[in-house]
Amino acid sequence: MRVFITGASSGLGQALATAYARQGAQLALIGRRRQKLEKLAASLPGQHTVYALDIMDRAALHHAANDFLARGDVDIVIACAGISIGTLTEYEEDFAQFQKVINTNLLAMVATFEPFIKPMKARNRGTLVGISSVAGVRGLPGSSAYSASKAATTTYLESLRVDLHDTRLKVVTIAPGFIDTPMTQHNPYKMPFLMQADAFAEAAIRAIDKGSSYTVIPWQMGVVAKLLKWVPNPVYDYFAFKSGRKPRSDSLP
User: Fold this and answer.
1) Which are the catalytic amino acids?
2) Would you state the pLDDT for residue 253?
């Protein structure tokens, strides 16, 4: 099994890479920090390929994808890279933050999948996995860019799944709740059903193996997400406002 993973240098991507390597998979590890990727690759069983790049560099991302494809068929592509930045629309300078979040969380996912679809169609098999978020179900305070990007990601993946309906390719959407990663460790509010990254990876791989179209992890957050869709706006607005907001960031990460 050969797996291409973006965002592999930390968080969910690293956890998924570790879990797949233990299953004997050969991995392409994509991220910005070469040293961290090489350290991860060296710690894993098997032989893996490191591609240090910025996923917003579409040409570099495609080059890495085509290089990995040249070494053998690719079974699973996981677009896991993502960022979260606190934003407020009233600050005009936050427009750059919005652009970075949308470009990273949505458009880089599109660019990740692009090189693989034709080869997978030719083989008539393959799985495309997108990491979305429960944050895309309803808008969260202070997270307008992140929530919007994840809502768009979920809808994009659904459209892609429909586009590929007449093939044997699978499109899997994974919507994490609160997972203990560097992205969430600075959140200044309560995080219900907080899950460890290794447990998330095990649950995600089960969903990927099944070809599940949409899975919320942990499952308890799936129940919460379904309920949130039916909460009237005035009620939701009141409790969301009281829950605490993600702090605004004054600079790009």
Assistant:
1) 146
2) 36
Token pair of 97, please? 């933050």
Tokens read off for 50: 């490191």
Which among 137, 98, 94, 142 is positioned nearest to 242, based on CA atoms?
A: 142
**Contacts with 138 (C-beta within 8 Å, 6 or more apart), sequence order:** 147, 228, 229, 236, 240
Interatomic CA distance for residues 39 and 117, integer angstroms: 30
Per-residue pLDDT at 112: 98
The phi, psi pair for 196, rounded to 5°, reads: -75, 150
Q: What is the pLDDT of residue 182?
A: 64
Which single residue is written with the structure tokens 């290794």?
198
Query: What's the pLDDT score for residue 226?
Result: 77
Nearest to 211 by CA among 111, 129, 117, 119: 129
**Where are the extended beta strands (E) located within the chain?**
2-6, 26-31, 49-52, 76-79, 126-131, 169-176, 179-180, 195-196, 214-217
Residue-by-residue DSSP string for 44-59: SSS--EEEE--TT-HH
CB 109, CB 79: distance < 8 Å: yes
Task: Write out the two tokens for 105.
Answer: 């969380």
**Mean pLDDT per 10-residue interval, the chain, length 253 residues:** 94 94 96 94 94 96 97 96 86 91 96 97 96 86 87 96 96 88 59 78 95 90 78 74 62 36
**If we measure between CA atoms, which residue out of 183, 185, 233, 166 comes closest to residue 80?**
183
Q: Are 9 and 180 in contact (CB under 8 A)?
A: no
- Structural domains for the chain: 2-242 (3.40.50.720)
Quick one: pLDDT at residue 111?
Answer: 97
Closest CA to 74 of 18, 4, 138: 4
What's the angle, vertex CA 181, arms to CA 78 and CA 192, rounded to 5?
Answer: 105
